[in-house]
Write a structure and sequence with these properties.
This protein has 336 residues and is an alpha/beta fold. The protein is built from ten helices and eleven strands. It has two domains: 6-199, Rossmann fold (3-Layer(aba) Sandwich); 203-325, Cytochrome-c3 Hydrogenase, Chain A, domain 2, CATH 4.10.480.10. It has helices at residues 18-23, 31-38, 53-64, 99-107, 118-122, 171-182, 198-201, 212-216, 297-309, 313-319, and strands spanning 6-12, 40-44, 72-76, 79-80, 112-116, 135-136, 140-141, 144-145, 162-164, 283-284, 287-288.
Length: 336
C-alpha cells in the first residue's frame, strides 16, 4: 500500500526569516534529500518555491477551499494583529487580506499546525518592547495561551499548535518534527507544557556543554574570551534552557556556549525581555537569581562553596584565560 506524501504549506509572517535560513543548513541529510526520503511534499514556501503571483495564490485558494489537502501548516514569524486589531500591518501580497486572516483560515484546514521558531510560537523578538505591531504567537502570547488562534484551538488531528521554538530553530528540530508527523508518531504526550516537541525540549542546553568542568567547580568566566562557566557572571541560562544544543551541535560542531556566548534561553516564551542585560547574571546577596533547574537555593549555596574550595589550580587558572594555560596532569592508569 502506498501512502500519499505529507503535504506542507509554509507561510512567513512577522520575523526575520532566520528559521528558514537555519533549516537550509540541515545536514546528514540535507533538506531536499530529507524531504524526498521522508515522503514530505513542500506545497509552497514563499522563499524556496518557484510559484509566485497568480500560481501561488491559486494554490493558497485551493488549500483554503479544501480542494488541495493540507497535512501541515508551518508558520514562521509572529502574527501581527495591528493596527487596532485589523492585521493590516501585514497583508499577504496580491490578496488584499491580512496574513493573520489567511493563517486562521488555513489552520482550520490543516491536519497539523506547526509554529516554526519562537516568534511564531510565543511572539518572540517581534513582540518585544512596546510591541507597536501587536505581535503574538500562533497559540501563545508570551507564557499565556491565546494568540492568533484560540487558546483551545485544535487542528484536525486533535493536537494544539506544535511549537518548534528557538531563535532560530535548529534545522533538525524542524525536520525531525515533520518526519514524526509524516510517520504519525507525534502525539499529545510528545509535547511539553509549552507544546514544544519533547525530543529536544526534555533536554537542557547544559547537557553536553564543553564548559561543564568549570561549572562543577564554579570556576567562572568574567569576559567573553575566558574559558570558564558563564552562569555566575555572564548571564548564561544553559542550566535552565530547554534544548539539546550541546548534544545536537549546530552544523555538526557549534553552539552558543561553544562559541563563547551565554545561552539566553531562546526556546522559552519571554526570553526577549529577561529584565536585565542578556550577558549579565542578576544576583541577590551575591547569589544568582536564576538557579539551575530543580536546584534548591540552599543546596546551590552549599555545593558552590564546597566546589570553589576544591577547585584545582588548573581549572581556576584556565577559567580566566582564553586558552588552556595549565594542561591536565598525565597519570598512568596501569595498576600493574
Amino acid at each position: 500500500m502506498t501512502h500519499r506524501p505529507l503535504s506542507v504549506l509554509w507561510l512567513q509572517s512577522g520575523g526575520c526569516g532566520g528559521c528558514t535560513m537555519s533549516m537550509l543548513c540541515a545536514q546528514s541529510p540535507d533538506l531536499p534529500t530529507l524531504l524526498e526520503i521522508a515522503g514530505i511534499r513542500l506545497l509552497w514556501h514563499p522563499s524556496l518555491s518557484e510559484e509566485t503571483g497568480a500560481e501561488a495564490l491559486a494554490l493558497l485558494d485551493a488549500v483554503r477551499t479544501g480542494r488541495e489537502p493540507l497535512d501541515v501548516l508551518c508558520v514562521e514569524g509572529s502574527l501581527l494583529r495591528g493596527p487596532n486589531g485589523t492585521g493590516r500591518f501585514h497583508v499577504l501580497a496580491g490578496t488584499g487580506r491580512p496574513t493573520i486572516d489567511w493563517v486562521r483560515e488555513l489552520a482550520g484546514q490543516a491536519r497539523h499546525v506547526v509554529a516554526v521558531g519562537t516568534c511564531a510560537a510565543f511572539g518572540g523578538i517581534t513582540a518585544g518592547g512596546l510591541n507597536v505591531a501587536d505581535a503574538c504567537g500562533l497559540q501563545y502570547e508570551g507564557t499565556r495561551r491565546g494568540g492568533a488562534l484560540a487558546a483551545d484551538f485544535r487542528s484536525r488531528s486533535g493536537l494544539p499548535v506544535i511549537n518548534v521554538a528557538g531563535c532560530p530553530t535548529h534545522p533538525n528540530w524542524v525536520t525531525e518534527t515533520l518526519m514524526l508527523l509524516a510517520g504519525d508518531a507525534l502525539g499529545a504526550d510528545g509535547l511539553d507544557a509549552f507544546q514544544r516537541p519533547r525530543f529536544y525540549a526534555d533536554h537542557l542546553v547544559h547537557h553536553g556543554c564543553t564548559r561543564n568542568e568549570y561549572y562543577e567547580y564554579k570556576a567562572s568566566a568574567e569576559k567573553h574570551s575566558d574559558l570558564g562557566c558563564m552562569m555566575e557572571h555572564m548571564g548564561c541560562l544553559g542550566t535552565r534552557a530547554h534544548a539539546d544544543c550541546n548534544t545536537r551541535p549546530w552544523n555538526g560542531e557549534g553552539s552558543c556556549t561553544r562559541g563563547g556566548y551565554a545561552c539566553i534561553n531562546c526556546t522559552a516564551p519571554g526570553f526577549e525581555e529577561p529584565g536585565h542585560p542578556f550577558e549579565r547574571t542578576p544576583t541577590f546577596a551575591g547569589i544568582p537569581v536564576g538557579l539551575p533547574t530543580d536546584m534548591p537555593k540552599a543546596w546551590f549555596v552549599a555545593l558552590a562553596s564546597l566546589a570553589k574550595a576544591a577547585t584545582p589550580e588548573r581549572v581556576r587558572r584556565n577559567a580566566a584565560a582564553d586558552r588552556i594555560v595549565v594542561p591536565p596532569s598525565i597519570r598512568s592508569t596501569n595498576k600493574g
